[in-house]
Amino acid sequence: MRTPLVLEEIWRDMRFGLRSLLRSPGFAAAAISCLALGIGANAAFFSVLNAVLLRPLPFVEPDRLVRIYEEISGVGPGSVSFPNFRDWAEQNTGFEQLAAYRVGSRNLLSGTGDPERIRAVEATPKLFSLLGARPLLGRVFAAETDEPGKSKVAVVSEELWQTRLGGDPTQGGGTIRLDGVPYTVVGVMPASFDFPAGGAATDVWVLLEPSPEMASSRNTHALSVVGRLKLAMTLRQATAQLVTVAARIEKDHPAEQAGRSVLVQLLRETLVGRVRPALFILLGAVGLVLLIACANVANLLLARAAVRQHEVAIRLALGASRARLVRQLLIESLVLSFAGALLGLLLARWSLDALLPLAKGALPVFREFLLDGRVFGFLVAVAVLSGLAFGIVPALRSSREDVRSCLTEAGGKLTGTSHQQLLRSALVILEIAVSLVLLVGAGLLLRGFLVLSGTEPGLVKENVLTVHLAVPKAQLAGSTPRVFRPVLEKIRALPGVRFAALTSMLPIQKAGMNGDFTIEGRAAPPPGKEPLAELRVASPGFFQTLGIPILRGRDFGESDGESGPRVAIINDALARKHFPGEDPLGQRLRFGGDTFTIIGVVGSVRQAGLDHEPLAEIYRPYAAEGAAGVLDDPVLVIRTAVPPESLTNGVRAAVKSVDSTLPLFAVLTMEQVIDRSLAGRRLNLWLLAIFAGIALVLSATGLYGVISYLVAQRTREIGVRIALGAQKRDVLGLVMRQGARLTGAGLILGLLGAFAVTRVLESLLYGVSTRDPLTYAALAVALGAVALLATWIPARRVSQIDPILAIRTE
């Protein structure tokens, strides 16, 4: 019978707590608002963390899935060659299955309308069975019956099935045309299937058909490989077994495989590993925001405890036990906390909608940010822990009141021991210190972001339009200029166009196709130690279009690649590293089995992003033999004399007039391309800045509350001072000194804390030291100014009181 009585008492305490809060609406509103900001920020960020790090990958037993790379000594992991994948699959004993795939795009043609560029994955037959994926309709690839090169079958996404195949459940066996080739649709994957994860949604999966070169060359690295560990096989064991296979391959093919091994990582790690440190840093930041919110509410409760001293004394005098009183006060705190959590939940839902555009492209696993069961469980846990954290000290302090002394004082009088005042002051100092830590962190990220944004990319970014052009591989067979030259001529003739050119890959976005090269006339480097360079294909006028300076030699001509010697242009980064103190013009390089003569040196651009130094780079003319294999995703770059966005329709019409089957996609200005490359850093900056802003508001509010409380306690004293001739400036100085002491202590503690804590931001900064004195000084002064303003408001109010009224009120 004891348990029902306890529950009844708890329910009675909850109702009493609600009535108590309703009688103090100002206090309740202030406390709930603080908690809503702290708990809401934590709930919103935890939903992001849940989507990226905690929610399981949508595959069967995802913890057994791995990604396998070829690892080059001194370079790092990279893509895999088809012969190596084949040998791994045949010789390993640590994996149930291995599958290879590569991501690309295809032109989807239909009887009506314009062609559409869709994301396509070419995969070996075992991919779906390895992932344990089941189709919504039909079947997936069957390793026993589907043969690459012979079976033209496709598995489509649910979205493509709905939009292009009409969502007809009888559509199995229907046909779609990819790059003009008919494929039989054998299955439909549900919308929940996301592979490869972490990028744009895949529309269609087809069988991988390696070209003769890909099938035979171990130097053609174009594949991603996934595997499923055998039961009871650890990652370490499987890696060791595969390393043995790689060593055997290196022994059999020393010329191609010297210095190459393998790297095996869990699939989840490959998707989220690079963002995990930043997310944990931000989790710590949002935890500090909650700490400030709890300190603020604890301060409010301590002030309220002073008002309720008489009430507590009467309850103790009537026989209430101190344990019973502590429980009731803690339940009141929990009622406050859950009220703040409910309001915080609404703020979290709103903030997630606002966060979605910032997160797109910044997070490797991009899913909906759902307030699911895990998030609600986190919210409840945070509400309970917060309620206990900010309620326990005020509850214990209240239960220790001296009954006799409290009953002899006037009820409701604002009193409070020196210990309470000291505790409230300590809480404010803590709030200011933590706020300064967050502000310095956000300031460092902002300075780093501004430095990065101002970094010269090595090209002109103003008035440049970039357009991806989808051309089927079969159409590129033979003469590449035959396809692109008419398109470029049409675009150059458009009003407002200054220059137009073509390239295999845009700068800034990422590194492209790379490989090793040798310099003719020099001793061959040891196997596995060959220098690496990025390979780009460009049309004549490309460097002029993007404003990349030609430092020596000349640009490509229209005949380069079609006739005469095989030529190439290198960038300054390659020239300085491999031709120091000599003229590279006329030197001959061997790259990818081809030898060519250097005809020019151009300025270096930041191919892999503004935060990466320029890489060694080799440009080949777009008419060169083999260029078609590099131009899988050609990009038109157009320099304009008018706003580049205004030419989008004209460019589309120009391309369509040459070939109506060529779709355009990813139409962006160069400024947008650069801006998107900063998406991850921008997200980190915005989140930390928001957390720092919330902390600043809460700490300023906390300081205001403490000073207002101290002023209220000294109202009679201040009235007497004014009556005896004290001036307003004297009263202002008296109160401001109190606030300044608290602020100064908080700033000193905050500077020390920031100096120790901001080291964790080092990996997120660019061009700025974590010890940057300007950031520390500026933000300390700014926070100090806000804190003193929060002090000045109650100080000014009390300096204007009527001394007679103050004495009478007291």
The residue fraction in helices comes out at 40-55%
Number of helices: 27
Shape: elongated
What strand line-up does the widest sheet have?
4-5-10-7-9-8
Radius of gyration: 34 Å
- Average pLDDT across residues? 82
Distance between the termini: 50 Å
Task: Characterize the structure shown.
This protein has 810 residues and is an alpha+beta fold. It is built from 27 helices and 23 strands. The strands form three sheets. A six-stranded mixed barrel has the order 4-5-10-7-9-8. A six-stranded mixed β-barrel has the order 15-16-21-18-20-19. The longest helix is centred in the middle third of the chain and has 38 residues, at 322-359. The radius of gyration is 34 Å and the shape is elongated. Residues 410-415 have low confidence and may be disordered.
Which features does this protein show?
810 residues, alpha+beta, six-stranded mixed barrel, six-stranded mixed β-barrel, 27 helices, 23 strands
Write the layout of secondary structure elements.
Layout: H1 2-23, H2 25-54, E1 65-72, E2 76-78, E3 80-81, H3 82-91, E4 95-109, E5 116-123, H4 127-131, E6 137-138, E7 153-157, H5 158-164, E8 175-178, E9 181-189, E10 204-207, H6 212-216, E11 221-229, H7 235-252, H8 254-257, E12 260-266, H9 267-272, H10 276-307, H11 309-317, H12 322-359, H13 373-399, H14 403-408, H15 418-453, E13 464-469, H16 473-476, H17 480-492, E14 497-503, E15 513-519, E16 532-538, H18 542-546, E17 550-553, E18 567-571, H19 572-578, E19 588-591, E20 594-602, E21 617-621, H20 627-630, E22 635-640, H21 648-658, E23 664-669, H22 670-677, H23 679-713, H24 715-723, H25 728-757, H26 773-799, H27 803-809
Parallel strand pairs: 5-10, 7-9, 16-21, 18-20
Antiparallel strand pairs: 1-2, 1-11, 1-12, 3-11, 4-5, 4-8, 4-11, 6-9, 7-10, 8-9, 13-22, 13-23, 14-22, 15-16, 15-19, 17-20, 18-21, 19-20
Helix pairs in contact: 1-12, 2-10, 2-12, 2-13, 3-7, 10-13, 10-15, 10-23, 12-13, 15-23, 15-25, 15-26, 17-21, 23-26, 24-27, 25-26
